[in-house]
Design goal:
The structure is a single chain. It is built from nine helices and 18 strands. The protein is an alpha+beta fold. Among the domains are: 72 residues, no CATH class; 85 residues, Roll (Pdz3 Domain), CATH 2.30.42.10; 124 residues, no CATH class. A hairpin with a 2-residue loop joins strand 13 and strand 14. Helix 1 packs across helix 6, helix 2 runs antiparallel to helix 7 and helix 2 runs antiparallel to helix 8. The longest helix is centred in the C-terminal third of the chain and has 31 residues. 27% of the residues are buried. The model has no long low-confidence stretch (mean pLDDT 88). One of its GO terms (cellular component) is membrane.
Length: 419
């Protein structure tokens, strides 16, 4: 149950901030946001405030911000269509009923001759006496159909009506808010728990390990590995991990003197990759400083962004196999493991996950934010947008491929963790 709660809180927070970025920049651009949803599947909680429906859905595996005009959600009234209308005090249509069963006594029925609910905002048709009538449609008119209410979206409130820059920012804002969230989590860790000194000092040497055999001792201050100067513990571990089964020369300061040791890191395999390990432990020390916490938040965010891009590069070049990827099951399992190590470890994991989510969404793949930004780039180069039908087909194919990839990754996670 603790793992379930931790996963819902962590993943839900990341999705919330991602969608919040889309939402705020869309609203800033004047785009109507029809729905702000956290989760996928059936609704378990819904609240309408003004023009936006805020929902929480049953599966905590994603979310979305539905903007007017994005999903062909505008209503077109074809000639001959029978519609019921209700007028406001200015004789503008404020309600339209598209189903035949209407309980409103003030409704007037028209057989539509022509209508434009996007730009011109009018409806013209024959009333029950055969007279041709034309009415202006209110910008806030509501359409009722099969028990559903839909607020019409005048063209200037639709996504496609906005300048290219505003549309691109509304899409880019999702990943951007994931990076901002990661920064503030790292900042909070630095302020609350302190900033790790990250000094390359050995706290403990494991018996019968390569380091023990080479004569390494607790308290050794690592200065150099194979001629490469070392200033941080993370730098030391990264070099060792990259040299499994190789001769490594380590220089360390001990009691004011420089000691040279040669060792061969053991080969450790994880997710199909081989890493070096020499058998030493590190005891982190922390210092509290607002300025250092601010710097820590920025440097950790940039460092993880760089590290994840490096891993993606390794995946593309074949240095990582697809088996190294994790999906929802893997994230769920890892979140439970992190939660067992305390709130600070869980917060650090959430920050790394947030950066992962931001970068994954920026990949130039159909159906992702990066794929949409790629179409905006084409639009900027061509001087006109790509045909909506063609773009929709590309995104549909992309969704199908992503679903297949998700199934493969999820199956690998299930085999890895449960069998």
């Amino acid at each position: 149950m603790e793992t379930v709660i931790a996963f819902i809180i962590v993943f839900g927070s990341l999705v919330f901030f991602h969608e919040l970025g889309h939402f705020l920049f869309a609203k800033k651009a004047g785009i109507m946001v029809r729905e702000f949803a956290i989760g996928m599947g059936p609704k378990i909680l819904a609240l309408r405030k003004k023009e936006t429906l805020y929902t929480i859905r049953i599966l905590p595996l994603g979310g979305y911000v539905r903007m007017a005009g994005e999903d062909f959600d505008t209503v077109e009234l074809q000639p001959g269509f029978r519609v019921g209308i209700v007028l406001n005090d200015a004789d503008e249509v404020e309600k339209m009923y598209l189903n035949r069963e209407v309980s409103n006594p003030n409704v007037l029925f028209l057989e539509t001759e022509s209508a434009d609910l996007s730009k011109a905002l009018y409806i013209e048709g024959y009333d029950e006496d055969g007279n041709l009538m034309k009415y202006n449609v209110s910008r806030n008119a509501i359409i009722y159909e099969k028990g559903q209410e839909t607020l019409i979206a005048p063209y200037d409130r639709q996504f496609d009506s906005k300048p290219l820059g505003s549309r691109a920012l509304a899409i880019f804002a999702g990943p951007l808010f994931n990076f901002i969230l990661a920064f503030f989590i790292f900042l909070a860790l630095g302020l609350i728990n302190g900033v790790p000194k990250n000094e390359p000092i050995i706290d403990e040497v494991v018996t019968d390990s390569p380091a023990y055999a080479a004569g390494m001792e607790a308290g050794d201050y690592i200065k150099e590995v194979d001629g490469t100067p070392v200033d941080k513990w993370t730098e030391f571990t990264e070099i060792i991990q990259q040299k499994p089964g190789e001769n490594v020369q380590v220089k360390a300061e001990r009691a004011g003197e420089l000691v040279t040791m040669t060792m061969i890191p053991s080969v450790v395999e994880d997710s199909g990759q081989k890493f070096g390990q020499i058998g030493v432990k590190y005891k982190p020390e922390f210092e509290k400083s607002p300025l250092k916490a601010l710097k820590y938040g920025a440097t950790e965010t940039v460092s993880w962004i760089s590290r994840i891009f490096e891993l993606l590069g390794m995946l593309v070049t074949g240095k990582f196999s697809i088996d190294a990827l994790s999906g929802p099951v893997g994230i769920y399992k890892a979140t439970g493991d992190m939660a067992q190590h305390g709130i600070f470890t869980l917060m650090n994991w959430a920050a790394v996950l947030s950066i992962n989510l931001g970068i994954m969404n920026l990949l130039p793949l159909p159906a992702l934010d990066g794929g949409r930004l790629l179409f905006f780039l084409f639009e900027g180069v061509r001087g006109k947008p790509v045909d909506k039908q063609k773009e929709g087909m590309v995104h549909f194919v992309g969704i199908m491929l992503l679903m297949v990839l998700m199934l493969v990754v999820t199956w690998n996670d299930i085999q890895r963790f449960f069998f």
